[in-house]
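RECORD TYPE: inverse folding
INPUT: C-alpha cells
STRUCTURE:
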C-alpha cells in the first residue's frame, strides 16, 4: 500500500536530514525559535465562516506531476490575498516537496503555515519549528496511540498547532483520544486513491461541534462547496484545484461567497 511505501522512504530519508543538522542541535534550534504568534493556525480556522487552507504541492502519487500555471511567488501573493492558511508539502519522494519551499513561503507570507508531511519522528517536529511552520499534520493511519499522544504533546510544547487527519470511524475514535482541537477527514482513500466527499458527511457527527472540522482533498467544484457547507464544515484544505488554476485567488473568493450564500 502506498502509505507504507511513503513511510518506508521517509525512514530512509531522515538520516540525510540528520546528517546535515543533528537531532540535539535541531532540538536546541527549535527551542530557541521564537513563536511567531501562538495558536495562529487554530485561530485562523476557528473564526466564523468558512476558512480555506491553500496548498502548495508539485506532485502526488494520485495526480502525478502537477504543472502549475503560475510560479510560487505569484501563488503566495494570490494565497496571501484570499486564503486563511497555507499548506506546504515537504515530503520529497512522492510529493516532490522540500523544506526549502516552506522557508520561501515563510519569507513571503504572514499567513499560518502547515507543514504537510509524514511525521514519524521527533526530529521532524523540531525541524518544522525551525523552518517557520506554525502547524503540523498527524496522520492517524500511520501512527499508533502512543505516538499520537507523544507527538501531539511535543508539537504543543513547541507551540505548533496540530491538524489530526482521519479517514474512517475507527480513526476518528482513535484521534479523539488525544482530544485534538483541529480534526480533518481526508476524502481521498490512500489505498486506492478514490475520492468521495461522503467520508466527510458520514464522519461529521462523530466530531464534537467545538472542534475545528476540516474537509481535506477532492474539493474541485461549486457543487463540492455546497455539499460540504450543508455538512457543517469549518475549513477546506484544497490542493489540486488551486494548483491547476491560473487564478486561485478568484477561486477561493468565489467559494467563500458561495459558502455564505
Ligand atoms: O489536491 P487535493 O485533492 O485538493 O488534496 C489536498 C490535500 O488534502 C492532500 O494533498 C492531502 C491530504 N492529506 C494528505 C497527507 C499527505 C499528503 C497529502 C495530503
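DESIGNED SEQUENCE:
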Amino acid at each position: 500500500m502506498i502509505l507504507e511505501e511513503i513511510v518506508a522512504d521517509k525512514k530512509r530519508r531522515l538520516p540525510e536530514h540528520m546528517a546535515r543538522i543533528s537531532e540535539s542541535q535541531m532540538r536546541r534550534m527549535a527551542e530557541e525559535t521564537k513563536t511567531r504568534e501562538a495558536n495562529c493556525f487554530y485561530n485562523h480556522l476557528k473564526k466564523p465562516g468558512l476558512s480555506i487552507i491553500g496548498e502548495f504541492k508539485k506532485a502526488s502519487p494520485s495526480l502525478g506531476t502537477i504543472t502549475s500555471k503560475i510560479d510560487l511567488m505569484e501563488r503566495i501573493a494570490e494565497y496571501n490575498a484570499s486564503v486563511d492558511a497555507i499548506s506546504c508539502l515537504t515530503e520529497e519522494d512522492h510529493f516532490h516537496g522540500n523544506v526549502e519551499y516552506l522557508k520561501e513561503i515563510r519569507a513571503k507570507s504572514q499567513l499560518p503555515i502547515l507543514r504537510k508531511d509524514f511525521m514519524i519522528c521527533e526530529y521532524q517536529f523540531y525541524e518544522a519549528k525551525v523552518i517557520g511552520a506554525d502547524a503540523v499534520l498527524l496522520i492517524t493511519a500511520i501512527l499508533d496511540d502512543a505516538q499520537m499522544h507523544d507527538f501531539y504533546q511535543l508539537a504543543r510544547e513547541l507551540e505548533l498547532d496540530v491538524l489530526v487527519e482521519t479517514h474512517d470511524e475507527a480513526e476518528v475514535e482513535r484521534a479523539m483520544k488525544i482530544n485534538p482541537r483541529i480534526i480533518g477527514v481526508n476524502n481521498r482513500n490512500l489505498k486506492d486513491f478514490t475520492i468521495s466527499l461522503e467520508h466527510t458527511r458520514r464522519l461529521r457527527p462523530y466530531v464534537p461541534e467545538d472542534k475545528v472540522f476540516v474537509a481535506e482533498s477532492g474539493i474541485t467544484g461549486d457543487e463540492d462547496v455546497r455539499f460540504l457547507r450543508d455538512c457543517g464544515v469549518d475549513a477546506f484544505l484544497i490542493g489540486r484545484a488551486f494548483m491547476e488554476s491560473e487564478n486561485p485567488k478568484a477561486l477561493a473568493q468565489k467559494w467563500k461567497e458561495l459558502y455564505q450564500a
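NOTES: The first helix runs from residue 2 to 20.
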